[in-house]
Amino acid sequence: MVREKHDGNPTRRRYDRVAFLYDFMELPMERALFAPWRAKLLNGIVGTQALEAGVGTGKNLPYYPRQMKITAIDLSFRMLKRARRRASGLGSDIDLQQMDVQQLAFPDHVFDTAFATFVFCSVPDPVQGLQEIRRVCKKGGKLLLLEHMRPGNLLLGLLFDLLNPFVVRMTGANINRRTRDNIRKAGWRVSVEKRIFSDIVWWIEAEA
Hints:
Blueprint: H1 10-42, E1 49-53, E2 69-74, H2 77-90, E3 95-98, E4 111-117, H3 126-136, E5 137-148, H4 154-171, H5 179-185, E6 189-197, E7 201-207
Parallel strand pairs: 1-2, 1-4, 2-3, 4-5
Antiparallel strand pairs: 5-7, 6-7
């Protein structure tokens, strides 16, 4: 059951506001690049219980393994409404909950796998969010991420830094996050780092 939460959270308000346009805004990149990688990433889910952090409108739902219990959370109620409609159309029984990844309402060591796609660009405190996911994962649990982040090239990185305040205002996503560093700061042991698009979009696997 998805229950709406009202507060002054600017990230929540921003994604509630753009929910109706979100899939349309991302359609070109989704078709050209991201959709196949979503399918490949989710093939790596292991165990019997998994958590998707930042389900958004439910773009990953078609790739969920059917034999597994998956809980999917998102900060935005309106994004979750779209995810619930998508799940219904697919005949999927998914536990969808409105929740902040920085303050997960789950006990310790519940999930075998946690995954997220293009989420930690918009979490206000990404290290805290990644620490929370690690807390709710079992010892040795798996983390799967597709993320875009600040390029390593000096000039391009500086350009992303300059553009970031405008992009955040328009879309809510930070384009200069150092997510690979943040994963390690949160205590995860990184096992796979693979470039998907230049050195901006990465596939990452880690263990709790």
